[in-house]
Specification:
With 79 residues, this protein is an alpha+beta fold. The chain has one domain. The chain has three helices and three strands; from the N terminus they run H-H-E-E-H-E. It has a three-stranded antiparallel beta sheet, with helices on both faces. Strand 1 and strand 2 form a beta hairpin.
Length: 79
């Protein structure tokens, strides 16, 4: 899940850093569909446009510690 989006981020990190430094970007498939100053805005806008689990929010930073964040939801349903 979201492997395509994360691989796109890793492959294009340098280009994304030049264009979106210190922003939170939203990736769907192999495309950046939004850029935001805060993760809250990125999540709010993206969750209105896309289904959960179909988009990746990634902070664009040179700091390696900021590359990945994990969020857990109590609203997950497995069938």
């Amino acid at each position: 899940m979201l492997e395509k989006e994360y691989n796109y981020f890793k492959k294009n990190k340098k280009t994304l850093l030049r264009k979106y430094a210190n922003k939170f970007i939203v990736i769907v498939g192999k495309k950046v569909v939004g850029s935001y100053a805060t993760i809250e805005n990125a999540l709010k806008e993206s969750s209105q446009k896309y289904s959960a689990g179909t988009f990746l929010i990634q902070k664009i930073s040179e700091n390696q510690d900021e590359l990945t964040q994990r969020f857990f939801s109590a609203n997950v349903c497995f069938r």
